[in-house]
């Protein structure tokens, strides 16, 4: 009787889950029959207790699974409304209720993926994949996460691992083919990407494939073909916000802003909360100098998303456009509190201060202070290139900072660059004439300057004609996918600082097309830089071209993550360029078999370095056009006897001043013999 009562209680609790009562009745009758047949009260009682425990456990487990399903369905509703953060929290609750709920793991992964939190997304998709290793969509998602977070070509292999598994299972699946196309597109292998996108298109007519194809043709500069692909995508799905946004982007890149705005408005009609579309509308008003309207739109978004640093960035642009510079700087710095890794907020604030606030302004002083500690920390880590850049950056913002100038001078002294050291102290004394420390350092080190080659030869080494080649830096281009609008100026400034910071490159900034057209082509290299950046990483795609021939000397690709990713990426690119661009010195003066040339320690020249002497500058264009070395241009050799910061004294061999008298000395150049030998060794 007691057992029957317990079973009835279980039934009433479980009845809410519609579990049939006849099952309980059947179990109860079966147990009683077992008791009668066995005639063992103790054994029958034990069986009953075991069964009760089993039924209770099963009932509780079933209830918990049902609760997990209910929570999961609530999460799906929020996800469909693009409320990704709250949906992720519900999916995690569902997982806690049912740790084997693979669909909840995948849903949580999707939510984090949409929030661009790829680390968390990967964790949940790996769990879902563990429970269902044959699921194609999990494989593709994991491969895409690997692509988006890859920091080097080797890291793309992790993406290919999942792609190969998916491809072996379903080689004609258009989603798999598109993913393979993405794999090559991310690595800038557009031809291979095109091949897989075309396979996907032949497998199934899908608007997404045409959007992918359009991106490739835009990258190749084939706007007509790109637009045709977009129109085909629109024909297949004219109500997709992805299609309308891509068409808007196409017009935006062509600077047809009003046509772009029509499609961005249409995008927001289909997806009112689409952030990228909202940002583009704000940018449209900024481009049109309608800053007041842009501020209204930004304030509306700030009510919904008060900690979004990009909104503060755009607000800073607006106040700068209204000539309210101090307010613009404060807004930009306020935005960085919500994302300390967003360097461009600070860089934009610094450039506004440099261009618009007077020397000695408190804001300029405040902005320069962090660079002193950054430089000191870099020096302690033996990151000398970082230290130089931070000191110079601090002085660009606040040239009146004697503490920063003194530390920079110390670094020059450590490098034995005496003239640069003394010039830096001299500027410090101009700012603070009564600074006794600077006076003492100047007097103490003056004797070392008297021992230099430039002092002995009475040559102002920093006023001589520049060595070759000249590296021309034109505009920096941001990709349409870049997070910050109108940041090209700040990115170019950091690039120029990083390049000049190597001290071994002859850099010239091109500020307009008119300047570029006036520039000669011989001995000139053009550096083109494209930047793609978001809240996690920055990617630099650079191309170095010999202007006289139009040949590409070398391509570079840099990707960096972390809080200082812009500075790190620019310094890494500059270091690579410094290694690849060898300096060609020009002869300043000849006295019998001794000559002075205009390259020295700053260009990594050392005593006993061997040079070859060439009768004209054509060899420079040959070298950077990757064409064979012409030995007939060699007229002699030389060896370094003494070296200063920007000049060196060499002894001439296998030639003589008489030979040089027959050639225009201004045309002759010298280059390290080992560099030519390396080039000859690399020949197939």
Explain what you see:
With about 675 residues, the protein is an alpha+beta fold. Among the domains are: about 1-65; about 275-355, Serine Threonine Protein Phosphatase 5, Tetratricopeptide repeat (Alpha Horseshoe), CATH 1.25.40.10; about 360-450, Tetratricopeptide repeat domain (Serine Threonine Protein Phosphatase 5, Tetratricopeptide repeat, Alpha Horseshoe), CATH 1.25.40; about 470-580, TolB, N-terminal domain (Rossmann fold, 3-Layer(aba) Sandwich), CATH 3.40.50; about 585-680, Thrombin, subunit H. About 60% of the residues lie in helices and about 10% in strands. It is built from 31 helices and eleven strands. The longest helix has about 40 residues, at about 40-80. It is globular, with a radius of gyration of 35 Å. It starts with a helix and ends with a helix. The model is unreliable at about 1-25 and about 55-65 (pLDDT under 50).
Q: Structural class of the secondary elements?
A: alpha+beta
* Gross CATH architecture of the domain at 470-580: 3-Layer(aba) Sandwich
Strands of the widest sheet, in order across it, are 6-7-10-9-8-11
Write down the overall mean pLDDT.
85
* Unreliable segments of 5+ consecutive residues: 1-26, 55-64
Give the beta-strand count: 11
- Residues in helix, %: 55-70%
The percentage of residues in β strands lies in: 5-15%
Distance between the termini: 97 Å
**Looking at CATH, which topology of the domain at 470-580 would you report?**
Rossmann fold
The number of helical elements comes to 31
CATH superfamily membership of the domain at 470-580: TolB, N-terminal domain
Morphology call: globular
Largest sheet: 6 strands, antiparallel, barrel
CATH class category label of the domain at 470-580: Alpha Beta
Q: C-alpha Rg, in Å?
A: 35 Å
């Amino acid at each position: 009787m007691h057992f029957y009562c317990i079973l009835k209680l279980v039934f009433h609790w479980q009845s809410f889950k519609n579990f049939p009562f006849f099952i309980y009745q059947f179990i109860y009758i079966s147990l009683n029959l077992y008791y009668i047949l066995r005639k063992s009260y103790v054994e029958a009682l034990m069986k009953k207790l075991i069964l009760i425990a089993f039924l209770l456990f099963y009932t509780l487990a079933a209830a918990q699974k049902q609760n997990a399903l209910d929570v999961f369905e609530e999460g799906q509703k929020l996800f469909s409304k693009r409320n990704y953060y709250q949906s992720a929290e519900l999916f995690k609750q569902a997982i806690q209720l049912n740790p084997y709920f693979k669909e909840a793991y995948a849903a949580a992964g999707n939510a984090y993926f949409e929030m661009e939190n790829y680390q968390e997304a990967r964790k949940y998709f790996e769990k879902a994949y563990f429970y269902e290793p044959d699921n194609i969509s999990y494989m593709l998602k994991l491969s895409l996460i690997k692509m988006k977070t890859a920091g080097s070509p080797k890291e793309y292999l992790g993406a290919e691992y999942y792609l190969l598994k998916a491809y072996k299972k379903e080689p004609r699946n258009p989603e798999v083919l598109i993913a393979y196309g993405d794999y090559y597109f991310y690595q800038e292998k557009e031809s291979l990407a095109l091949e897989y996108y075309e396979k996907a298109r032949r497998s199934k007519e899908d608007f997404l494939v045409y959007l992918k194809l359009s991106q490739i043709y835009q990258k190749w500069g084939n706007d007509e073909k790109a637009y045709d692909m977009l129109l085909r995508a629109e024909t297949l799905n004219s109500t997709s916000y992805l299609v309308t946004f891509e068409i808007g982007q196409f017009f935006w890149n062509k600077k047809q802003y009003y046509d772009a705005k029509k499609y961005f408005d249409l995008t927001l009609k289909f997806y009112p909360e689409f952030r990228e579309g909202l940002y583009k509308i704000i940018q449209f008003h900024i481009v049109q100098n309608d800053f007041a309207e842009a501020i209204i739109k930004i304030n509306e978004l700030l009510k919904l998303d008060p900690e979004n640093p990009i909104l503060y960035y755009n607000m800073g642009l607006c106040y700068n456009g209204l000539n309210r510079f101090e307010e613009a700087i404060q807004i930009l710095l306020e935005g960085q509190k919500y994302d300390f890794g967003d360097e461009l907020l600070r860089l934009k604030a610094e450039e506004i201060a440099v261009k618009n606030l007077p020397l000695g302004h408190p804001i300029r002083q405040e902005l320069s202070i962090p660079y002193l500690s950054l430089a000191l920390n870099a020096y302690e880590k033996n990151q000398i290139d970082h230290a130089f850049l931070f000191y110079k950056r601090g002085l660009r913002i606040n040239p009146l900072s004697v503490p920063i100038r003194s530390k920079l001078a110390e670094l020059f002294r450590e490098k034995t660059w005496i003239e640069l050291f003394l010039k830096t102290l001299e500027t410090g004394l101009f700012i603070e004439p009564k600074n006794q420390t600077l006076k003492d350092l100047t007097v103490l080190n003056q004797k070392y300057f008297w021992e230099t080659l430039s002092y002995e030869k009475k040559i102002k080494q920093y006023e001589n004609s520049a060595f070759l080649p000249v590296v021309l830096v034109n505009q920096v281009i941001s990709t349409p996918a870049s997070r910050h609008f109108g940041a090209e100026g700040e990115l170019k400034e950091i690039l120029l600082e990083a390049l000049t910071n190597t001290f071994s490159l002859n850099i010239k900034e091109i500020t307009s097309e008119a300047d570029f057209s006036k520039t000669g082509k011989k001995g000139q290299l053009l550096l083109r830089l494209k930047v793609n950046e978001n809240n996690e990483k920055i990617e630099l795609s650079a191309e170095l071209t010999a202007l006289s021939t139009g040949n590409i000397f070398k391509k570079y690709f840099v990707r960096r993550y972390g809080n200082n990713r812009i500075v790190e990426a620019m310094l890494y690119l500059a270091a690579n360029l410094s290694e690849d661009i060898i300096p060609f010195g020009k002869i300043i003066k000849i006295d019998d078999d001794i000559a002075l040339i205009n390259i020295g320690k700053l260009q990594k020249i050392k005593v006993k370095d061997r040079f070859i002497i060439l009768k004209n500058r054509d060899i420079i264009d040959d070298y950077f056009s990757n064409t064979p070395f012409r030995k007939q241009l060699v007229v002699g050799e030389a060896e370094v006897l003494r070296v200063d910061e920007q000049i060196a004294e060499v002894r001439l061999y296998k030639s003589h001043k008489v030979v040089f008298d027959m050639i225009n000395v201004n045309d002759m150049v010298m280059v390290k013999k080992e560099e030519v030998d390396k080039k000859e060794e690399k020949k197939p």
